[in-house]
Amino acid sequence: MAEDEMRGDDRPLWGRVAVVTGASRGAGRGIALELGAAGATVYVTGRSTRAEPARGYDNILRENGLAAPPGSIDETAEEVARLGGTGIAVRVDHTRDDEVRALFGRVEAEHGGLDLLVNNAWGGHEAFSVTSFGAPFWEQDMDQWDAMFDRGVRNHLLASRIAAPILIRQKRGLIVTTTYWDRGHYLKGNLFYDVAKASMNRLAFAMAEELRPHGVASLAVSPGWMRTELVLASQKATEETWREHPSLARTESPRYLGRAVAALAGDVEVLRKSGGIHRVADLAAEYGFTDTDGRLVPPFELDGE
């Protein structure tokens, strides 16, 4: 098939430029891969490279029997290319203003603009502990607040703040915030996590209010319970064996989220969704995509559990 023939339905995001933060593994990796499969050029950013994994995950690695964080920006970028896109790995610490500015400066210099920013870099796992995560807030260590806000919510605001002028000059573009949301219900189990996700949702809404007059959309996307590498490790499962684990029956792959983001990026009327929080399952029903195994995975809802 000629290259031009591949730019239609098979490559709906051909020529689009995206930045996906925190894409070494998990949600970010799933999003980057699906954008690549749709033909996009994807800047895959994060701290984990093949030569040097990110630091700061000691607790969660120890509790899951892992020697190092799985995945790297290099591996994700290579898989983006294998799927038909262009993957560009850039090591970025998204807590550092100078590194984030350098990233978007490079994107604009190399491509003249930006179509999509996916805010996914999340520091919450750096303070995660299975034994303490579900404790009442008065027993929680304030390190979790620092991880989720200073290295989570702030990451999203910083990247958006630096990318926004590029999008505004173009009078188009989309900022996606990955989050978790269950119709406003309290995310039982960790107050800090609940407040952090609520802050991300409000950030996406507030940015939409200021960006809408410039033709730029901002919205939040909420997946269900994803089979990330760390979730699989916690259950002693793999992507090939997860069906053997009843505890994982309600899970979905990170690429289900990726397909939602790709569908939004290809929607010429996405500005109508700006400011909203959109569940992956609802977007799947609307846009007509499924998870990698062909399932239309229902929303992961907490009430009644």
Automatic annotation (TrEMBL):
Gene3D superfamilies: NAD(P)-binding Rossmann-like Domain
Pfam families noted in UniProt: adh_short_C2 (PF13561)
SUPFAM superfamilies linked: NAD(P)-binding Rossmann-fold domains
InterPro entries membership: NAD(P)-bd_dom_sf, SDR_fam
Protein name (Swiss-Prot/TrEMBL): NAD(P)-dependent dehydrogenase (Short-subunit alcohol dehydrogenase family)
